[in-house]
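Escalated from tier 1: glutamine holo job.
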Amino acid sequence: MQNLQFNAADSKQHSPSALTETREQNVSENKTQTALRQSANQTDDDEFFYDDVPGYIKGKTKFVFVMGTVISGLGKGVFSSSLAKLLQDKGFCVEPLKMEGYLNIDSGTLNPYRHGEVFVLDDGLETDMDLGTYERVLCKNLNSQNYLTSGQIFLKVLTKEREGGYLGKDIQVIPHITGEIKKRFREIAAQKNADIVFVEVGGTVGDLENSHYLEAIREFAYEEGRENCCFVSLTYAIKPNALGEQKSKAAQHGIKKLMSLGIQPDVIAIRADEPVGLKVRQKISMNSNVPVERVISMHDVESIYLIPKLLQDAGIDAYVCKQLGFSFNVNSNSNGHSWDQFLTNLTSRDGEIVIGITGKYTQIRDAYASVIHALQHAATVCHKKLKIKWIETTEIENGNRTVEEELKDVTGIVVPGGFGTRGVEGKIACVKFARENNLPYLGLCYGFQMAVVEYARNVCKLLGAHTAEVAPNVTHKVIDILPEQKKIEGLGGNMRLGGRDVEIKENTRAYKLYNNQTSVRERFRHRYEVDPKYVETLEQHGLIFSGKAPNQPIMQILELPESVHPFFIGVQYHPEFLSRPTAVHPLFKGFVEACVARNN
Ligand code: GLN
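Tier 2 regenerated the structure:
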């Protein structure tokens, strides 16, 4: 049986601009292919499963697949986003697709202790923290198309089955599950008009959870043509203390496993603490059929933002372009100026600032990944090295430590997002200390709510004021669930998620920090909010609500005036999700500047 969908696309040399022309030409070609496939091959009995994707043009978009071997947590997201960035700098439209093995539909209910922070996209999808890495490194907003879980795929297939969508067939992992995965590859390519899609497979090769992804990738390369795909394997060189040298055996086995699944890597990046020696690279090369110059060392460097340069120096971006049939000027760098400036700042810092971050996940830094990055961006712009002091607020709450002891050596404090009761009184004590001692304060979401509670209790003297999340029975629930208020958005008692506009009051500190803008867009993830009946009392006592939702009484920014405090700001949203090395978030910049000023 001849099936046109499996013909390799012609491997013309493409440049970014040439791609636009190719797109036009191929539209009619694509329609013909679909018609032929339908008349010649697709019957109820067909073993192939192919669902057309409108606008998809075979061979127009190229795909880079990034897969990890040996251990998880190798930094596939960092690798993939860094490589994507190098190609973005050459003028290509790049789109990442992160694929998670787990059966959750999104990351909303995952425990940050185990999985790192929940990153929220502008369209409201709650995702894995890697999406944050992609947004920061590529400096662009992503959406639901960039994130896939096995749960989404299974849900889709099972829903379709219930609706009678499979014409009496038995539904199987191959071809139905793999078919839906391949469809997602084509959809992101078509809908985002991408030149190159970077697909990152979560977990490690050999996991049962991602085996359907790897099979889908193998099939996809067979269908699209090998010249339209580039396979990259990240691996790990172990250095046992007792031996004191890097060993390649585990890496060899991991890559062999990938090859046994029908995927021959084109590039191998070896993670290690120190630069990987030639011998190890040669052994891995010999065992994997990958020339040694494409078996590169991706050792630890001071900052993840230095990885693109490391890959470029190893010539990987040039190789990937060649493999995918792209022609371009190797040194072109359409977008690199602000990035280079950031790197220059990163290497020319004098002195450090110590910032305290409170929270209950303090042992697991990944739970606050975006907050740390945003602070780092701001500190780098201010030519300072960032040192974080983690403050376990349960220790303050239990009386084991005093707030003075904990905060005496910090130049500013951040109370980040959070849920539940643990450590809450300790957080409120930190807010009080910051307010009374002119210590720069930045409250993010829960930190905004804690600042309202603290002000209500200690300045407005609303006895026992609290958030309903912690104390549903107190008289003054200054923070509460107010489904009525969310009516306009149709949310009821649900979480407000994703990008929303914030209306900013003129001539406030927020207005100044946001460069005199009266409307900005920020990302939200909260259920509770300030009860509007307390707004007047709080404002009469000196608190300023300088940002609110348009047409709704939902308070979104609070501040103390400059005449009263050097920097006291709380926001109901998560500005940390929007900070990028090349575009530092103004609130973080303002906060860190205030910390630096306090130090001088
Ligand atoms: N727990 C609070 C709420 O649900 C704050 C949420 C957060 O900090 N992300 O409103």
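Confidence is low (pLDDT under 50) at residues 1-13, 17-33.
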